[in-house]
């Protein structure tokens, strides 16, 4: 309950978290005239803009460009140096706008969305306490819906917590490159940052708990990446886990399970992430703090009465990338707009609390069109714009290491576990003419997982230079369930790397 002296803000929709996902959900929800506020406690733009996707890719790109040039005689002779650390860090700083979010705030306001700065915590259904950056307390109420998009935070194993290790935040925003870096983990962050820091001149050791890096990728892709990491001088230790850690003026000192020691100037912990629900007050809604907010395909949180609570992005545990989180954001924004625009229009509220940038009043969809949107949403089935169907078996992922790895849909094992009758076809990408033009000694592999019953692609993996750019064709094939005999008529241009598609289909028997 609000105390008498507390300012109360009321909007049709409250979005908690102004990361990529929150911004997109808010924008879509507002398009039919609902008033929407985004509540953000740090920087608008969230993890991706400042401590994840953008700075990490900025750190990786110079090394990838040099490697590409070195693979092409004529260009190779012109490349005599290594990555310039200062210029790389300076470009990274440009990508993060020097950790200043005013550009994103301008976008938000230009889109007609309100922004409240501070930490939000549920105090009841559709009501939140907002603790401002100055410690002041306010109340935020949603007339219709709350969308939680609070993201995730790194998990730090107990054995390493006391040595103040780097997490994804420090590794992406570092101002200096340590001489030696030990990376704990073998997942996406570990692989990308091991490559980036080795390009930047650090001597890198990776401690991988299991028997392969990128455990969610196809095993052949893990093997190729693992071998490439070693080839570039990274000390990759499998079955290795830190049991104790200390830090002194010389750096960090880890003891591993087998009793051996690793000393380094710095340690990066990249052992996964956990949904940010620990301090969100979700217990007052009957949910468990620290757990993901489980959602249905309309992104409505399950287990909460009243149909007002939605979630998208990392906080759901359903997606762990920006692109897929933003897809869910588009879905949830459209669902919220369809479900509540008519009710908001009928209630006659002007939709704002007077804050600048709020966009109440009649929007383009507030008339008859909204009613039909509500109908369409209510009866929506899989693959409608109101259901996040792709999350189940059509999710694309790129790991921007060296080689790049890109995959979509199911791995062979996941397909078999799902009961599908599948076979795989594989082709060495370096054998196609376009790849030989792109790079001497192009090393990479393409694999399709084929559903034997339906004659369609249910999974695809590509490794190699710029493998990421091969991925979207596969994503279209998987989402569109394009039959192979129709795909046969999609002719890749000569000489491009995409010609591997023709070779894959020939290998499949066409
Ligand atoms: C190193 C690294 C590299 C990555 N690279 C890629 C990549 O190349 N491509 C890709 O697709 N994905 C990448 N990801 C994943 C991507 O960063 C996340 O999937 C994405 O940021 C999730 O977006 P989100 O909006 O759900 O969460 P976030 O970006 O974490 O945003 C959540 C926001 O909510 C705010 N917030 C949290 N709690 C509250 C509260 N109680 N009150 C108010 N505000 C709150 C936070 O301050 C934050 O701004 C990477 C991740 C890491 C760690
Ligand atoms: N290019 C991209 O799209 C991109 C880049 C970076 C991160 N991300 C996203 O961010 C998420 C988080 O990345 P991440 O690399 O932190 O997580 P991850 O789940 O990809 O990998 C975690 C790794 O840590 C290991 N691990 C877990 N607990 C451990 C422990 N106690 N000791 C040692 N090892 C342990 C796991 O075996 C695994 O190899 C990913 O799901 C990914 O999708 C995406």
Automatic annotation (TrEMBL):
Domain FAD/NAD(P)-binding: 11-324
Molecular function GO terms recorded: dihydrolipoyl dehydrogenase (NADH) activity; flavin adenine dinucleotide binding
InterPro entries: Class-I_Pyr_Nuc-Dis_Oxidored, FAD/NAD-bd_sf, FAD/NAD-binding_dom, FAD/NAD-linked_Rdtase_dimer_sf, Pyr_nuc-diS_OxRdtase, Pyr_nucl-diS_OxRdtase_dimer
Keywords: FAD, Flavoprotein, NAD, Nucleotide-binding
Residues that hold NAD(+) according to the record: 185-192, 272
Disulfide bond residue pairs: 48-53
Region span, Disordered: 346-385
Required co-factors: FAD
Binding site for FAD: 57, 150-152, 314
Domain of life (superkingdom): Bacteria
SUPFAM superfamilies xref list: FAD/NAD(P)-binding domain, FAD/NAD-linked reductases, dimerisation (C-terminal) domain
Pfam families, A to Z: Pyr_redox_2 (PF07992), Pyr_redox_dim (PF02852)
Comp. bias intervals (Gly residues): 354-368
KW NAD (keyword) present: yes
Cofactor: binding details: Binds 1 FAD per subunit.
Entry's Gene Ontology BP terms: 2-oxoglutarate metabolic process
Residue span(s) of domain Pyridine nucleotide-disulphide oxidoreductase dimerisation: 395-501
Family: Belongs to the class-I pyridine nucleotide-disulfide oxidoreductase family.
Record protein name field: FAD-dependent pyridine nucleotide-disulfide oxidoreductase
Taxonomic source organism: Cellulomonas cellasea DSM 20118
């Amino acid at each position: 309950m609000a105390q008498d002296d507390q300012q109360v803000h009321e909007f049709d929709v409250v979005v908690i978290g102004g990361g990529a996902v929150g911004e997109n959900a808010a924008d879509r929800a507002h398009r039919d005239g609902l008033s929407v506020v985004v509540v953000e406690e740090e920087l608008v733009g969230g993890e991706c803009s400042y401590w994840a996707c953008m700075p990490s890719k900025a750190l990786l790109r110079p090394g990838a460009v040099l490697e590409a040039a070195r693979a092409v005689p004529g260009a190779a002779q012109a490349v005599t140096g290594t990555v310039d650390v200062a210029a790389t860090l300076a470009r990274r700083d440009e990508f993060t706008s020097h950790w200043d979010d005013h550009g994103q705030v301008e976008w938000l306001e230009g889109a007609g969305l309100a922004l409240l700065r501070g930490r939000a915590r549920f105090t009841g259904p559709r009501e939140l306490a907002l603790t401002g950056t100055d410690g002041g307390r306010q109340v935020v109420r949603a007339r219709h819906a709350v969308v939680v998009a609070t993201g995730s935070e790194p998990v730090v194993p107990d054995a390493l917590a006391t040595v103040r290790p780097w997490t994804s935040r420090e590794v992406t925003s570092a101002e200096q490159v340590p001489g030696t870096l030990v990376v704990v983990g073998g997942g996406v962050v570990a692989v990308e940052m091991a490559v980036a820091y080795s390009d930047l001149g650090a001597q890198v050791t990776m401690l991988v708990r299991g028997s392969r890096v990128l455990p969610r990728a196809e095993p052949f892709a893990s093997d190729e990446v693992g071998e490439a990491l070693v080839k570039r001088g990274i000390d990759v230790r499998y079955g290795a886990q830190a049991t104790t850690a200390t830090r002194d003026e010389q750096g960090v000192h880890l003891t591993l399970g087998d009793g051996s020691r690793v000393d380094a100037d710095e340690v990066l912990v990249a052992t996964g992430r956990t949904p940010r629900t620990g301090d969100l007050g979700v217990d007052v809604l009957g949910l468990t703090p620290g757990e993901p907010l489980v959602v249905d395909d309309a992104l409505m949180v399950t287990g909460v009465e009243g149909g007002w609570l939605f979630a998208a992005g990392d906080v759901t545990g359903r997606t762990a990338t920006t692109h897929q989180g933003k897809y869910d954001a588009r879905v949830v924004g459209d669902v919220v707009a369809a479900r509540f625009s008519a009710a908001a229009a009928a209630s006659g509220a002007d939709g704002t609390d007077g804050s600048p940038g709020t966009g109440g009043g009649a929007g383009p969809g507030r008339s008859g069109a909204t009613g039909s949107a509500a109908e369409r949403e209510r009866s929506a089935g899989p693959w409608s714009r109101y259901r996040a169907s792709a999350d189940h078996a059509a999710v694309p992922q790129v790991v921007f290491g060296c080689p790049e790895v890109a995959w979509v849909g199911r791995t062979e094992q996941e397909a078999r576990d799902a009961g599908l009758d599948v076979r795989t076809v594989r082709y060495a990408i370096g054998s196609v003419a376009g790849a030989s033009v792109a790079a001497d000694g192009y090393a990479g592999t393409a694999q399709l997982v084929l559903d034997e019953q339906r004659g369609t692609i249910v999974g695809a993996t590509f490794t190699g230079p710029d493998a990421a750019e091969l991925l979207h064709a596969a994503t279209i094939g998987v989402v569109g369930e394009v039959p192979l005999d129709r795909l046969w008529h999609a002719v890749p241009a000569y000489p491009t790397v995409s010609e591997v598609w023709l070779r894959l289909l020939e290998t499949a028997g066409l």
